[in-house]
Every structure is written in C-alpha cells, then in structure tokens.
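Let's study my pick:
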Amino acid sequence: MSTKNTTTYADAESDAAAVAAGVSAEANAPVATGVNAPVAATAGATATETATIPAPVQASVPASVPAPAPTPLPVQTAAAAQAVAVVPAPVLVASDLDRTLIYSSAALALGMPDAQAPRLLCVEVHESKPLSYMTERAAGLLEQLTAEAVFVPTTTRTRKQYQRIQLPGRAPKYAICANGGHILVDGVTDADWHASVLRRLADECAPLSEVRAYLTATTDLSWVRKHRVAEDLFAYLVVERERLPVDWLERFGAWAGERGWTVSLQGRKVYAVPKPLTKSAAVHEVARRTGASLTLAAGDSLLDADLLLAADRAWRPGHGELAESDWTAPHLDVLAERGVAAGEEILRRFRAAAAV
C-alpha cells in the first residue's frame, strides 16, 4: 500500500489496539473530505466498508475522484415527448341510429325506379328476419369514419335492442342507449353514470309509475297495440298511427310536461321520456372522457333536438319529426335527402367535417 499522505503515530501497538476496538485513530491525522473519504471501522462493518478502511498502523487517504457527469437525456425520449405534445384531440361523432343512419324497410323511401335503387346491407336481424338496412356506400363511409373519429352510436333503444345491430367498421368504444340512461364502455354499462341518472330522475320529475297509470287509464285498445317500459326509465306505446287520436296526443303532452316529462311520436311509437334523461348529457360525458375537441351530431326526432343543440355542428334529414316541425338551429344543416339516402349523405358530411 502506498504511504503517501500517511501519518505515523508514536505508539503503533496502542494505535492498532484502538482501531481493532472500533475507535478511529484521529489524533494529529489530516481530515479527508468528499465522496471518497475513508469510512470509520465499526464492530458490525460490512465487507464493503472494511475494504475501504486503511491498515491499523499506516492509514492512508485515497485521492479524491470527481463525481461522474449526469447521463444526458436520450435523444429519442425528447423527440417522443415532442411528438406526444402535438397529437390533436379527437373528433367525436354522436349519431342517432333509427331513421338517421339505419332504416327499416318501411322507412327506406326508395323513390327511384327499381333498377336504380342502391344496393342495401342488412345491419339488424330480429326474430330471424331482416329488420334494418343502410346502403352499401353508407356502410363503406361508416367503416372509414370509425377509423378517423370517435364514433358514438346514440340511441333511444334499450341495450338489448341496440346489441342486435351489427354496424360496419370498428366496434365503438362508447355507445349511448336508453336516451342517455346508459353509457356502454366496450359493451358494458357504466354503473356510476347510470346511478347518477337515477338520482336526477328521482329529484326532478314524476315517477314512471304515475306516467304508466295515466297511459293505462286514457288509451284505447282500438289504436294501441302494445304498452312497453324501457330499462325502467321511460315508457312507450306501439300504436296504429292512422287511428291515433290527435287530441289525445296533445292532452298527454301537456299533462306530461307539467310533471317533468316529454312526449314524442316516432313512426308507430309514442314515447314518454323524463326531461332530465337526455342524449346530450351522456354525449357531454363521453366528450369529457375522450378529450374531444369537436362534436358532430345527427338526428331526426324531437328526442334528438338536445343532442343537435349540444354539438358544434349538426345535421338532420329531410324527414322525421324535426323536419315536420321545421326545426332548425344556427349550426344545423338541413339535408334535402330523405330515407336511406339521407343516412348515406349524413355519413359523407361527418367525414368531411371531421377531416377539417
């Protein structure tokens, strides 16, 4: 061992005994500083510590070694961080389904000669029979849209009714059913969202049982085919529309409005839905979760009005309750197309708006 920078003491034997007992020989010794200063020996020193302690008689202080420079941040890490910072927020497309994107055979409105009719794709089967369609061109547009934006089917259908539909393209991460009563995440109900909806309904409107009692007492089997309850959230009737008394519908609408409910006639169905149960509230929640920068929407019925108002841009077809009432809004585009052709045009407009 080198003797450079070493101090020799008068009584080597005494000093050696002191070191062996765990006492540092400090008298007249120079003090070493820095990360490489010797570690004092202790009775329980580890093997590493012992290796750094000088011999008992001739203690030496190793030369100080500079601390290593910090490792620079890898170039690829900085580049990746910059790339993440510029990823644009997604576009959210929330669309009603029935008579907006998909159509029953009665709602197709194929006004052209048979030889010029578009090819159709069946997207729903019920009780082993084809039920809902879209054009093949619309199917291709939807497939492209699902790869370009966050597509959210937004429907008044129950979860069971919605799950019968087989839409083209990527399976939606989010779907809204029961007019906003359920948000599905990867096909599974978000229980927290549903619980928050139930609390609002209990606080803000008359109970479902009261509405059902009114329907039972005031309707006639001559024009009502079925009474239905959807997800224990709202009620609807399946009616013979040509026999439906207009004055009854008006009276029911006024009665329900006083109790926090809204009434809507869609095809052969009369819906009674609590006012707090809205598609727009659920779409706002999905937009919050996805961080969407732009929301696009489409719909044809009065139950879609709040959804269209909540969107940044919106479209409605040339048919349906909204068209019949000439409903409009500043950011709404009214399409001339009716029936299944309107669904195709809506998808074309969605893609163009999402690409801007």
In short: Residues 1-61 have pLDDT under 50 and may be disordered. The first strand starts at residue 91 and ends at 95. The CA atoms of residues 147 and 336 lie 27 Å apart. The chain has twelve helices and 15 strands.
